[in-house]
Amino acid sequence: MLNGNILTPDGWIRGTLHCENGRITALEGSPADPSKNGDPYILPGFIDLHVHGGGGADVMESGAAIETIARTHAHHGTTSMLATTMTAPRDELLAVVSGLGEVTRTRTPGGARVLGVHLEGPYINPGKLGAQPDAAVSAVLDEVLKYLSVAPIRVVTLAPEIAGHMEIISEMVARGVRVQLGHSLATYDDAVAALKHGACGFTHLFNAMSPMHHRNPGLVGAAFAHAEFAEIIPDLLHVHPGAIRAALRAIPRLYVVTDSTSATGMPDGEYRLGSQHVTKCLGGVRLADGTLAGSTLTMDAALRNLVSIGLPLADVSNRMSRYAADYLGIEDRGRLARGAWADAVVFERDLTLAATYVEGEQIVEYA
Question: How does pLDDT run across 224-240, given as a tens digit for each residue?
Answer without folding.
Answer: 999 999 999 999 999 99
